[in-house]
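Cont'd.
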Amino acid sequence: MSTTPSTAQTPETGTARVKRGMAEQLKGGVIMDVVTPEQAKIAEDAGAVAVMALERVPADIRKDGGVARMSDPDMIDGIIEAVSIPVMAKSRIGHFVEAQVLQALGVDYIDESEVLTPADEVNHSDKWAFTTPFVCGATNLGEALRRIAEGAAMIRSKGEAGTGNVVEAVRHLRQIKGEISRLRGLDNNELYAAAKELRAPYELVKEVAELGKLPVVLFSAGGVATPADAALMRQLGAEGVFVGSGIFKSGDPAKRAAAIVRATTFFDDPKVIADASRNLGEAMVGINIDILPETERYASRGW
Amino acid sequence: MSVTAQPVIGVLALQGDVREHQAALTAAGAAVRPVRRPEELAGLAGLTLPGGESTTISKLAVLFGLMDPLRAAIREGLPVYGTCAGLIMLADKILDPSPGPWGPGETPISGQETFGGIDMIVRRNAFGRQNESFEALVDVTGVPGGPVEGVFIRAPWVESVGAGTEVLAEHGGHIVAVRQGTALATSFHPELTGDHRVHELFVHMVRTES
Protein backbone atom coordinates (compact mmCIF):
# COMPACT_ATOMS: atom_id res chain seq x y z
CA MET A 1 0.00 0.00 0.00
CA SER A 2 1.43 3.38 -0.91
CA THR A 3 1.01 5.01 2.47
CA THR A 4 4.60 6.25 2.51
CA PRO A 5 4.88 10.00 2.96
CA SER A 6 5.04 12.18 -0.09
CA THR A 7 8.38 13.86 -0.53
CA ALA A 8 7.32 15.70 -3.66
CA GLN A 9 7.30 19.47 -3.48
CA THR A 10 4.33 19.64 -5.81
CA PRO A 11 0.96 18.69 -4.37
CA GLU A 12 0.10 15.04 -4.91
CA THR A 13 -3.56 14.04 -5.35
CA GLY A 14 -5.19 10.62 -5.11
CA THR A 15 -2.72 9.17 -2.57
CA ALA A 16 -3.80 6.30 -0.33
CA ARG A 17 -3.56 8.71 2.60
CA VAL A 18 -5.97 11.30 1.20
CA LYS A 19 -8.37 8.55 0.08
CA ARG A 20 -8.39 6.70 3.40
CA GLY A 21 -8.12 9.99 5.31
CA MET A 22 -11.34 11.19 3.69
CA ALA A 23 -13.19 8.23 5.24
CA GLU A 24 -11.60 8.98 8.62
CA GLN A 25 -13.38 12.36 8.49
CA LEU A 26 -16.75 10.59 8.16
CA LYS A 27 -16.35 8.50 11.31
CA GLY A 28 -19.11 8.66 13.87
CA GLY A 29 -21.47 9.85 11.17
CA VAL A 30 -24.44 8.77 9.06
CA ILE A 31 -24.35 8.53 5.27
CA MET A 32 -27.83 8.71 3.74
CA ASP A 33 -29.23 7.44 0.44
CA VAL A 34 -30.96 10.22 -1.51
CA VAL A 35 -32.60 10.29 -4.94
CA THR A 36 -33.26 14.04 -5.40
CA PRO A 37 -31.55 17.34 -4.51
CA GLU A 38 -34.46 18.04 -2.11
CA GLN A 39 -33.78 14.81 -0.23
CA ALA A 40 -30.05 15.64 -0.16
CA LYS A 41 -30.86 18.97 1.47
CA ILE A 42 -33.07 17.24 4.08
CA ALA A 43 -30.21 14.82 4.81
CA GLU A 44 -27.67 17.64 5.18
CA ASP A 45 -30.00 19.62 7.43
CA ALA A 46 -30.48 16.52 9.59
CA GLY A 47 -26.71 16.27 10.13
CA ALA A 48 -25.67 13.59 7.60
CA VAL A 49 -21.88 13.52 7.05
CA ALA A 50 -22.39 12.60 3.38
CA VAL A 51 -25.11 11.57 0.96
CA MET A 52 -25.24 8.65 -1.46
CA ALA A 53 -26.79 9.81 -4.73
CA LEU A 54 -28.78 7.09 -6.48
CA GLU A 55 -31.71 6.78 -8.82
CA ARG A 56 -33.83 4.48 -6.69
CA VAL A 57 -33.37 3.48 -3.06
CA PRO A 58 -32.75 -0.27 -2.62
CA ALA A 59 -36.34 -0.93 -1.47
CA ASP A 60 -37.58 0.39 -4.83
CA ILE A 61 -34.91 -1.50 -6.77
CA ARG A 62 -36.29 -4.65 -5.11
CA LYS A 63 -39.87 -3.70 -5.92
CA ASP A 64 -39.33 -2.59 -9.52
CA GLY A 65 -36.85 -5.26 -10.56
CA GLY A 66 -34.90 -4.87 -13.82
CA VAL A 67 -31.25 -3.89 -14.19
CA ALA A 68 -30.11 -1.30 -11.66
CA ARG A 69 -27.36 0.99 -13.03
CA MET A 70 -25.34 4.09 -12.21
CA SER A 71 -27.48 7.22 -11.75
CA ASP A 72 -28.22 9.88 -14.33
CA PRO A 73 -25.36 12.45 -14.41
CA ASP A 74 -27.88 15.32 -14.29
CA MET A 75 -29.30 13.95 -11.07
CA ILE A 76 -25.81 13.62 -9.56
CA ASP A 77 -24.91 17.17 -10.67
CA GLY A 78 -28.10 18.46 -9.06
CA ILE A 79 -27.26 16.79 -5.75
CA ILE A 80 -23.64 18.02 -5.82
CA GLU A 81 -25.04 21.51 -6.42
CA ALA A 82 -27.57 21.25 -3.58
CA VAL A 83 -25.31 20.38 -0.64
CA SER A 84 -21.88 21.25 0.77
CA ILE A 85 -21.29 17.82 2.40
CA PRO A 86 -19.53 15.04 0.41
CA VAL A 87 -21.52 13.27 -2.30
CA MET A 88 -21.04 9.57 -3.01
CA ALA A 89 -22.50 7.59 -5.91
CA LYS A 90 -22.74 3.93 -6.85
CA SER A 91 -21.22 2.04 -9.76
CA ARG A 92 -22.03 -1.54 -10.68
CA ILE A 93 -19.52 -4.17 -9.54
CA GLY A 94 -16.80 -4.44 -12.19
CA HIS A 95 -18.24 -1.59 -14.28
CA PHE A 96 -15.11 0.54 -14.29
CA VAL A 97 -16.50 2.82 -16.98
CA GLU A 98 -19.40 3.84 -14.74
CA ALA A 99 -16.74 4.53 -12.12
CA GLN A 100 -14.77 6.63 -14.63
CA VAL A 101 -17.93 8.63 -15.34
CA LEU A 102 -18.57 9.18 -11.62
CA GLN A 103 -14.98 10.37 -11.18
CA ALA A 104 -15.41 12.75 -14.12
CA LEU A 105 -18.59 14.11 -12.51
CA GLY A 106 -16.53 14.96 -9.41
CA VAL A 107 -18.24 12.76 -6.81
CA ASP A 108 -16.27 12.47 -3.57
CA TYR A 109 -16.52 8.70 -3.12
CA ILE A 110 -17.57 5.81 -5.39
CA ASP A 111 -19.49 2.86 -3.93
CA GLU A 112 -18.84 -0.23 -6.05
CA SER A 113 -22.11 -1.68 -4.92
CA GLU A 114 -23.89 -5.02 -4.85
CA VAL A 115 -27.17 -3.08 -4.69
CA LEU A 116 -26.78 -2.40 -8.42
CA THR A 117 -26.79 -5.27 -10.90
CA PRO A 118 -23.20 -6.60 -11.26
CA ALA A 119 -21.55 -5.92 -14.64
CA ASP A 120 -18.80 -8.51 -14.20
CA GLU A 121 -19.24 -11.80 -12.38
CA VAL A 122 -15.50 -12.43 -12.03
CA ASN A 123 -13.71 -9.12 -11.53
CA HIS A 124 -14.22 -6.06 -9.40
CA SER A 125 -12.87 -2.72 -10.67
CA ASP A 126 -9.17 -1.88 -10.20
CA LYS A 127 -9.69 0.92 -7.72
CA TRP A 128 -6.00 1.96 -7.58
CA ALA A 129 -6.48 3.37 -11.09
CA PHE A 130 -8.73 6.14 -9.76
CA THR A 131 -8.18 9.47 -8.00
CA THR A 132 -11.65 9.22 -6.45
CA PRO A 133 -11.66 6.85 -3.46
CA PHE A 134 -13.90 3.76 -3.30
CA VAL A 135 -16.02 2.17 -0.61
CA CYS A 136 -16.98 -1.49 -1.06
CA GLY A 137 -19.25 -3.91 0.77
CA ALA A 138 -18.09 -7.08 2.51
CA THR A 139 -19.76 -9.97 4.31
CA ASN A 140 -16.56 -11.30 5.90
CA LEU A 141 -12.91 -10.39 6.49
CA GLY A 142 -11.53 -12.12 3.40
CA GLU A 143 -13.92 -10.21 1.16
CA ALA A 144 -13.03 -6.92 2.89
CA LEU A 145 -9.30 -7.56 2.41
CA ARG A 146 -9.72 -8.52 -1.26
CA ARG A 147 -11.51 -5.20 -1.84
CA ILE A 148 -8.75 -3.32 0.02
CA ALA A 149 -6.15 -5.15 -2.09
CA GLU A 150 -8.00 -3.85 -5.17
CA GLY A 151 -7.73 -0.32 -3.77
CA ALA A 152 -10.87 0.23 -1.68
CA ALA A 153 -10.23 3.04 0.85
CA MET A 154 -13.26 2.28 3.03
CA ILE A 155 -15.30 -0.85 3.80
CA ARG A 156 -18.93 -1.25 4.78
CA SER A 157 -20.44 -4.46 6.01
CA LYS A 158 -23.08 -5.34 3.41
CA GLY A 159 -26.17 -6.29 5.35
CA GLU A 160 -29.20 -6.77 3.11
CA ALA A 161 -30.11 -3.44 1.52
CA GLY A 162 -33.73 -2.44 1.06
CA THR A 163 -35.15 -4.78 3.66
CA GLY A 164 -35.33 -2.55 6.73
CA ASN A 165 -34.12 -5.64 8.58
CA VAL A 166 -30.87 -5.26 10.50
CA VAL A 167 -30.21 -8.99 10.95
CA GLU A 168 -27.80 -9.35 8.01
CA ALA A 169 -25.92 -6.17 8.95
CA VAL A 170 -25.37 -7.66 12.39
CA ARG A 171 -24.30 -11.00 10.92
CA HIS A 172 -21.73 -9.45 8.56
CA LEU A 173 -20.27 -7.01 11.06
CA ARG A 174 -19.96 -9.71 13.73
CA GLN A 175 -18.32 -11.96 11.13
CA ILE A 176 -15.73 -9.32 10.19
CA LYS A 177 -15.01 -8.28 13.79
CA GLY A 178 -14.87 -11.91 14.93
CA GLU A 179 -12.39 -12.87 12.22
CA ILE A 180 -10.20 -9.88 13.14
CA SER A 181 -10.21 -11.00 16.80
CA ARG A 182 -9.19 -14.50 15.78
CA LEU A 183 -6.26 -13.15 13.72
CA ARG A 184 -5.01 -11.29 16.81
CA GLY A 185 -4.51 -14.62 18.54
CA LEU A 186 -2.41 -16.23 15.81
CA ASP A 187 1.37 -16.39 15.75
CA ASN A 188 3.46 -15.49 12.71
CA ASN A 189 3.59 -19.08 11.45
CA GLU A 190 -0.19 -19.33 11.46
CA LEU A 191 -0.76 -16.07 9.58
CA TYR A 192 0.34 -17.61 6.26
CA ALA A 193 -2.30 -20.32 6.49
CA ALA A 194 -4.83 -17.73 7.67
CA ALA A 195 -4.12 -15.64 4.56
CA LYS A 196 -4.69 -18.71 2.41
CA GLU A 197 -7.98 -19.48 4.13
CA LEU A 198 -9.12 -15.87 3.89
CA ARG A 199 -8.03 -15.77 0.22
CA ALA A 200 -6.39 -12.41 0.95
CA PRO A 201 -2.83 -11.05 0.56
CA TYR A 202 -0.52 -12.09 3.42
CA GLU A 203 0.71 -8.49 3.96
CA LEU A 204 -2.82 -7.26 4.60
CA VAL A 205 -3.61 -10.18 6.89
CA LYS A 206 -0.46 -9.45 8.89
CA GLU A 207 -1.34 -5.74 9.06
CA VAL A 208 -4.83 -6.52 10.40
CA ALA A 209 -3.39 -8.95 12.95
CA GLU A 210 -1.04 -6.21 14.20
CA LEU A 211 -3.55 -3.33 14.15
CA GLY A 212 -6.50 -5.31 15.50
CA LYS A 213 -8.64 -3.52 12.94
CA LEU A 214 -8.92 -3.03 9.20
CA PRO A 215 -6.36 -0.59 7.75
CA VAL A 216 -9.33 1.46 6.47
CA VAL A 217 -12.51 2.78 8.07
CA LEU A 218 -15.31 0.22 8.61
CA PHE A 219 -18.95 1.34 8.41
CA SER A 220 -22.10 -0.76 8.52
CA ALA A 221 -24.87 -0.82 5.91
CA GLY A 222 -27.93 -2.69 4.74
CA GLY A 223 -31.07 -2.79 6.87
CA VAL A 224 -30.67 0.06 9.38
CA ALA A 225 -34.14 1.59 9.87
CA THR A 226 -34.29 2.99 13.40
CA PRO A 227 -32.09 5.02 15.80
CA ALA A 228 -31.63 1.87 17.89
CA ASP A 229 -30.49 -0.07 14.79
CA ALA A 230 -27.82 2.57 14.12
CA ALA A 231 -26.66 2.55 17.75
CA LEU A 232 -26.57 -1.27 17.70
CA MET A 233 -24.19 -1.27 14.74
CA ARG A 234 -21.98 1.32 16.47
CA GLN A 235 -21.90 -0.71 19.68
CA LEU A 236 -20.94 -3.76 17.64
CA GLY A 237 -17.93 -1.85 16.34
CA ALA A 238 -19.01 -0.03 13.17
CA GLU A 239 -17.32 3.37 12.91
CA GLY A 240 -20.42 4.86 11.29
CA VAL A 241 -23.53 3.81 9.38
CA PHE A 242 -25.05 3.98 5.93
CA VAL A 243 -28.84 4.32 5.92
CA GLY A 244 -30.53 3.56 2.64
CA SER A 245 -34.26 3.09 2.27
CA GLY A 246 -34.78 3.43 6.04
CA ILE A 247 -35.10 7.21 5.96
CA PHE A 248 -36.96 8.22 2.83
CA LYS A 249 -39.24 5.17 2.94
CA SER A 250 -40.42 6.16 6.42
CA GLY A 251 -43.32 8.39 7.52
CA ASP A 252 -41.29 11.48 8.52
CA PRO A 253 -37.87 11.41 6.80
CA ALA A 254 -36.48 14.69 8.22
CA LYS A 255 -37.30 13.70 11.79
CA ARG A 256 -36.08 10.11 11.41
CA ALA A 257 -32.85 11.26 9.74
CA ALA A 258 -32.04 13.65 12.61
CA ALA A 259 -32.94 10.97 15.16
CA ILE A 260 -30.61 8.43 13.56
CA VAL A 261 -27.78 11.00 13.57
CA ARG A 262 -28.30 11.66 17.29
CA ALA A 263 -28.39 7.96 18.14
CA THR A 264 -25.24 7.35 16.09
CA THR A 265 -23.29 10.03 18.01
CA PHE A 266 -24.57 8.91 21.44
CA PHE A 267 -24.70 5.22 20.53
CA ASP A 268 -23.65 4.27 24.06
CA ASP A 269 -26.26 6.38 25.85
CA PRO A 270 -29.67 4.61 26.02
CA LYS A 271 -31.38 7.78 27.33
CA VAL A 272 -30.41 9.71 24.20
CA ILE A 273 -31.42 6.78 22.00
CA ALA A 274 -34.78 6.52 23.79
CA ASP A 275 -35.36 10.22 23.34
CA ALA A 276 -34.37 10.04 19.66
CA SER A 277 -36.79 7.13 19.14
CA ARG A 278 -39.92 9.01 20.24
CA ASN A 279 -42.70 10.00 17.83
CA LEU A 280 -40.87 9.21 14.63
CA GLY A 281 -43.95 8.13 12.73
CA GLU A 282 -43.96 4.92 10.81
CA ALA A 283 -40.71 3.05 10.10
CA MET A 284 -40.32 1.48 6.68
CA VAL A 285 -42.09 -1.84 6.35
CA GLY A 286 -39.42 -4.48 6.69
CA ILE A 287 -38.84 -7.78 4.89
CA ASN A 288 -38.00 -11.00 6.67
CA ILE A 289 -34.76 -12.33 5.21
CA ASP A 290 -35.77 -16.00 5.45
CA ILE A 291 -38.60 -15.47 2.96
CA LEU A 292 -36.26 -13.66 0.56
CA PRO A 293 -35.24 -16.00 -2.28
CA GLU A 294 -31.50 -16.57 -2.66
CA THR A 295 -31.56 -14.85 -6.07
CA GLU A 296 -32.91 -11.67 -4.47
CA ARG A 297 -30.18 -11.41 -1.85
CA TYR A 298 -27.81 -8.62 -2.79
CA ALA A 299 -25.18 -9.60 -0.23
CA SER A 300 -24.25 -12.68 -2.26
CA ARG A 301 -23.24 -10.45 -5.18
CA GLY A 302 -19.49 -9.82 -5.14
CA TRP A 303 -17.04 -12.36 -3.82
CA MET B 1 0.52 22.97 37.31
CA SER B 2 4.19 22.17 36.91
CA VAL B 3 5.68 22.06 33.43
CA THR B 4 6.34 18.34 33.76
CA ALA B 5 2.78 17.37 34.74
CA GLN B 6 0.56 15.82 32.09
CA PRO B 7 -2.04 18.34 30.99
CA VAL B 8 -5.54 16.95 30.42
CA ILE B 9 -6.62 17.80 26.88
CA GLY B 10 -10.09 17.07 25.54
CA VAL B 11 -10.98 15.97 22.02
CA LEU B 12 -14.41 17.07 20.82
CA ALA B 13 -15.90 13.65 20.01
CA LEU B 14 -19.19 14.43 18.29
CA GLN B 15 -17.94 13.17 14.92
CA GLY B 16 -14.74 12.91 12.87
CA ASP B 17 -11.18 11.64 13.26
CA VAL B 18 -11.29 11.69 17.05
CA ARG B 19 -9.16 8.59 17.58
CA GLU B 20 -6.28 10.01 15.51
CA HIS B 21 -6.24 13.20 17.60
CA GLN B 22 -6.30 11.16 20.78
CA ALA B 23 -3.30 9.14 19.56
CA ALA B 24 -1.35 12.26 18.46
CA LEU B 25 -2.00 14.08 21.74
CA THR B 26 -1.02 11.03 23.78
CA ALA B 27 2.21 10.78 21.78
CA ALA B 28 2.78 14.49 22.42
CA GLY B 29 2.61 13.91 26.18
CA ALA B 30 -0.98 14.81 27.11
CA ALA B 31 -3.64 12.90 29.02
CA VAL B 32 -6.63 12.74 26.69
CA ARG B 33 -10.37 12.75 27.26
CA PRO B 34 -13.23 12.66 24.74
CA VAL B 35 -15.83 15.44 25.10
CA ARG B 36 -19.45 15.08 23.97
CA ARG B 37 -21.34 16.79 26.81
CA PRO B 38 -21.05 20.28 28.39
CA GLU B 39 -20.11 18.85 31.81
CA GLU B 40 -17.13 17.06 30.25
CA LEU B 41 -15.47 20.44 29.62
CA ALA B 42 -14.77 20.84 33.34
CA GLY B 43 -11.13 20.52 34.32
CA LEU B 44 -9.68 20.57 30.83
CA ALA B 45 -6.40 22.39 30.21
CA GLY B 46 -7.03 22.42 26.46
CA LEU B 47 -9.31 21.09 23.73
CA THR B 48 -8.81 19.92 20.15
CA LEU B 49 -11.50 20.07 17.49
CA PRO B 50 -10.97 17.17 15.07
CA GLY B 51 -11.44 16.93 11.35
CA GLY B 52 -14.90 15.82 10.25
CA GLU B 53 -17.92 17.42 8.64
CA SER B 54 -18.24 20.92 10.05
CA THR B 55 -21.99 21.11 9.25
CA THR B 56 -22.60 17.91 11.24
CA ILE B 57 -20.36 18.95 14.15
CA SER B 58 -22.03 22.36 14.27
CA LYS B 59 -25.56 20.87 14.36
CA LEU B 60 -24.66 18.29 16.99
CA ALA B 61 -22.98 20.96 19.14
CA VAL B 62 -26.19 23.01 19.09
CA LEU B 63 -28.40 19.97 19.69
CA PHE B 64 -26.45 18.74 22.69
CA GLY B 65 -25.95 22.13 24.34
CA LEU B 66 -22.21 22.46 23.66
CA MET B 67 -22.29 25.58 21.49
CA ASP B 68 -22.60 28.22 24.21
CA PRO B 69 -20.42 26.59 26.90
CA LEU B 70 -17.67 26.01 24.35
CA ARG B 71 -17.86 29.54 23.02
CA ALA B 72 -17.60 30.84 26.58
CA ALA B 73 -14.69 28.54 27.43
CA ILE B 74 -12.74 29.63 24.35
CA ARG B 75 -13.49 33.28 25.07
CA GLU B 76 -12.23 32.80 28.61
CA GLY B 77 -8.92 31.49 27.26
CA LEU B 78 -9.23 27.67 27.06
CA PRO B 79 -6.43 26.71 24.64
CA VAL B 80 -7.90 25.13 21.49
CA TYR B 81 -6.51 23.49 18.36
CA GLY B 82 -8.71 22.76 15.34
CA THR B 83 -7.84 20.83 12.16
CA CYS B 84 -9.83 21.21 8.91
CA ALA B 85 -13.46 21.14 10.16
CA GLY B 86 -12.01 22.23 13.51
CA LEU B 87 -10.42 25.26 11.82
CA ILE B 88 -13.83 26.09 10.33
CA MET B 89 -15.43 25.84 13.79
CA LEU B 90 -12.86 28.30 15.19
CA ALA B 91 -13.52 30.93 12.52
CA ASP B 92 -15.42 34.04 13.49
CA LYS B 93 -16.89 34.01 9.96
CA ILE B 94 -17.23 31.33 7.25
CA LEU B 95 -17.96 31.46 3.55
CA ASP B 96 -19.39 29.03 1.01
CA PRO B 97 -17.01 26.91 -1.08
CA SER B 98 -17.38 29.06 -4.17
CA PRO B 99 -17.80 32.82 -4.35
CA GLY B 100 -21.43 33.72 -5.03
CA PRO B 101 -22.68 36.35 -7.47
CA TRP B 102 -21.81 38.98 -4.87
CA GLY B 103 -18.12 38.16 -5.00
CA PRO B 104 -15.80 36.75 -2.34
CA GLY B 105 -16.48 37.74 1.23
CA GLU B 106 -20.13 38.46 0.61
CA THR B 107 -21.72 35.04 0.91
CA PRO B 108 -21.76 33.94 4.53
CA ILE B 109 -23.20 30.44 4.96
CA SER B 110 -26.62 30.56 6.46
CA GLY B 111 -27.44 28.38 9.40
CA GLN B 112 -23.99 27.05 10.20
CA GLU B 113 -22.83 28.25 13.57
CA THR B 114 -19.21 28.20 14.71
CA PHE B 115 -17.54 28.39 18.12
CA GLY B 116 -15.38 31.24 16.88
CA GLY B 117 -12.28 32.35 18.74
CA ILE B 118 -9.98 33.25 15.87
CA ASP B 119 -10.42 36.54 14.06
CA MET B 120 -10.41 35.12 10.52
CA ILE B 121 -12.67 34.49 7.55
CA VAL B 122 -12.57 30.88 6.34
CA ARG B 123 -13.77 29.49 3.03
CA ARG B 124 -15.04 25.91 3.27
CA ASN B 125 -13.78 23.29 0.74
CA ALA B 126 -11.75 26.10 -0.83
CA PHE B 127 -9.09 23.74 -2.24
CA GLY B 128 -11.83 21.74 -3.98
CA ARG B 129 -13.67 18.45 -3.67
CA GLN B 130 -12.18 15.04 -2.86
CA ASN B 131 -10.54 14.61 -6.28
CA GLU B 132 -8.51 17.77 -5.52
CA SER B 133 -7.52 16.56 -2.03
CA PHE B 134 -3.71 16.46 -1.83
CA GLU B 135 -0.54 16.04 0.16
CA ALA B 136 2.20 18.66 0.22
CA LEU B 137 5.05 19.69 2.49
CA VAL B 138 4.26 22.78 4.57
CA ASP B 139 6.60 24.98 6.62
CA VAL B 140 4.86 25.94 9.86
CA THR B 141 6.20 28.82 11.97
CA GLY B 142 6.88 27.57 15.49
CA VAL B 143 7.35 23.95 14.40
CA PRO B 144 11.08 23.13 14.37
CA GLY B 145 12.79 20.45 12.30
CA GLY B 146 11.70 21.22 8.75
CA PRO B 147 8.35 21.12 6.94
CA VAL B 148 5.45 18.93 8.04
CA GLU B 149 3.51 16.59 5.76
CA GLY B 150 0.31 18.43 5.01
CA VAL B 151 -2.67 16.19 4.26
CA PHE B 152 -5.41 18.41 2.79
CA ILE B 153 -8.84 16.75 2.45
CA ARG B 154 -11.62 18.86 0.89
CA ALA B 155 -9.71 21.46 2.80
CA PRO B 156 -10.70 25.00 3.73
CA TRP B 157 -8.36 27.93 3.55
CA VAL B 158 -8.23 31.14 5.51
CA GLU B 159 -9.34 33.98 3.28
CA SER B 160 -8.21 36.78 5.59
CA VAL B 161 -7.16 37.36 9.18
CA GLY B 162 -7.60 40.20 11.66
CA ALA B 163 -4.73 42.21 13.18
CA GLY B 164 -4.35 39.92 16.20
CA THR B 165 -4.10 36.68 14.21
CA GLU B 166 -0.67 35.35 13.28
CA VAL B 167 -0.27 33.47 9.99
CA LEU B 168 1.84 30.34 10.61
CA ALA B 169 1.77 28.72 7.16
CA GLU B 170 0.69 29.21 3.58
CA HIS B 171 0.26 26.87 0.64
CA GLY B 172 -0.11 28.08 -2.93
CA GLY B 173 -0.57 31.64 -1.73
CA HIS B 174 -3.35 30.71 0.69
CA ILE B 175 -3.25 30.78 4.50
CA VAL B 176 -3.42 27.24 5.93
CA ALA B 177 -2.29 27.64 9.56
CA VAL B 178 -2.98 30.43 12.06
CA ARG B 179 -2.67 31.28 15.73
CA GLN B 180 -4.42 33.85 17.83
CA GLY B 181 -3.34 33.82 21.47
CA THR B 182 -4.08 30.31 22.76
CA ALA B 183 -6.07 29.26 19.70
CA LEU B 184 -4.32 27.28 16.93
CA ALA B 185 -5.80 26.04 13.64
CA THR B 186 -4.61 24.20 10.52
CA SER B 187 -6.40 23.46 7.22
CA PHE B 188 -4.54 20.15 7.06
CA HIS B 189 -4.53 17.01 9.23
CA PRO B 190 -1.28 16.36 11.16
CA GLU B 191 -3.25 13.69 13.07
CA LEU B 192 -3.30 11.52 9.91
CA THR B 193 0.51 11.41 9.75
CA GLY B 194 2.95 9.87 12.20
CA ASP B 195 4.47 13.32 12.75
CA HIS B 196 3.23 14.82 16.03
CA ARG B 197 5.12 18.11 15.97
CA VAL B 198 2.05 20.33 15.50
CA HIS B 199 0.31 18.56 18.39
CA GLU B 200 3.52 19.02 20.42
CA LEU B 201 3.34 22.75 19.67
CA PHE B 202 -0.24 22.76 20.96
CA VAL B 203 0.62 20.77 24.09
CA HIS B 204 3.43 23.27 24.70
CA MET B 205 0.91 26.15 24.33
CA VAL B 206 -1.36 24.41 26.86
CA ARG B 207 1.52 23.91 29.32
CA THR B 208 2.63 27.53 28.99
CA GLU B 209 -0.90 28.69 29.66
CA SER B 210 -1.61 26.51 32.70
